[in-house]
């Protein structure tokens, strides 16, 4: 099934944005009278018929609307972007394919990259959403210092706050730290990990230190491992 993304879709009729219309009409050669499926990034699938196949004014009439099932758990990963931006883009794509609700980017003392191209990451996110046949676009938050992020994320009883940390004296595996929390937030550090001061800030703010296993993982791999585990416990 081929999906097209229109965040302004309605339950009756709407115009498909030019970029998606170009792909629909010119690349896939859809025409007036053909049926297409649109997603709005908010959890809805729209089965539509093309009523006007002009690229600048591609009008769709809605035949049916379905709402996707909400995930059992809100998974939020806060991760330090990698030095190689391609690896960060890879992480965003795979995280969405596996199942993540929110991604935040944090700057730490050991971070090798201190800026990101948010618009490009959002495009990668949309592509991954369509590729994996999902209708909900995860929230992608811009880069902020770790101290700012921790101070803005209030710990509450409905959520589990974790920090993945490479530590021989850290036997608690992430899967054993999860209860029935509806929300889980995991901090993933850069190459070189969090500093002891950053770890202490997290712990005193209500985060729990966890391990992702015995192997030393690259940053983007650690993020994927965390998401995979959280989707299966």
UniProtKB/TrEMBL annotation:
A GO term from the CC aspect: cytoplasm
Keywords: Cytoplasm, Methyltransferase, rRNA processing, S-adenosyl-L-methionine, Transferase
CDD domains associated with the record: RsmE-like
Keyword Acetylation attached: no
Keyword rRNA processing: yes
Highest taxon of source: Bacteria
A Pfam family annotated for this UniProt entry: Methyltrans_RNA
Catalysed reaction equations from the record: uridine(1498) in 16S rRNA + S-adenosyl-L-methionine = N(3)-methyluridine(1498) in 16S rRNA + S-adenosyl-L-homocysteine + H(+)
Annotated ranges, domain Ribosomal RNA small subunit methyltransferase E PUA-like: 16-62
Enzyme class label: transferase
Alphabetized GO MF terms: rRNA (uridine-N3-)-methyltransferase activity
Subcellular location: Cytoplasm
Family: Belongs to the RNA methyltransferase RsmE family.
Function comment: Specifically methylates the N3 position of the uracil ring of uridine 1498 (m3U1498) in 16S rRNA. Acts on the fully assembled 30S ribosomal subunit.
Protein name: Ribosomal RNA small subunit methyltransferase E
Protein source organism: Fulvivirga lutea
């Amino acid at each position: 099934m081929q999906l097209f993304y229109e965040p302004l879709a309605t339950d009756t009729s709407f115009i498909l944005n030019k970029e998606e219309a170009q792909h629909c009409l010119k690349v896939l050669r859809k025409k007036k009278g053909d049926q297409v499926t649109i997603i709005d990034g908010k959890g809805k699938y729209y089965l539509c018929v093309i009523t006007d196949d002009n690229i600048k004014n591609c009008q769709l009439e809605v035949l049916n609307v379905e709402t996707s099932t909400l995930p059992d758990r809100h998974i939020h990963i806060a991760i330090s972007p990698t030095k190689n931006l391609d690896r960060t883009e890879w992480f965003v794509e795979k995280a969405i394919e596996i199942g993540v609700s929110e991604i935040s980017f944090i700057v730490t003392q050991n971070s090798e990259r201190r800026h990101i191209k948010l618009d490009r990451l959002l495009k990668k996110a949309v592509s991954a959403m369509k590729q994996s046949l999902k209708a909900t676009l995860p929230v992608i938050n811009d880069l902020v210092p770790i101290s700012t992020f921790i101070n803005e994320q209030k710990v509450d009883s409905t959520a589990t706050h974790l920090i993945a940390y490479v530590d021989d004296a850290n036997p608690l595996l992430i899967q054993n730290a999860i209860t029935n929390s509806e929300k889980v937030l995991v901090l993933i550090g850069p190459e070189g990990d969090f500093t002891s001061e950053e770890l202490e800030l997290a712990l005193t703010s209500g985060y729990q230190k966890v391990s992702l296993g015995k192997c030393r993982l690259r940053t983007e791999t650690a993020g994927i491992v965390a998401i995979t585990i959280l989707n299966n416990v």
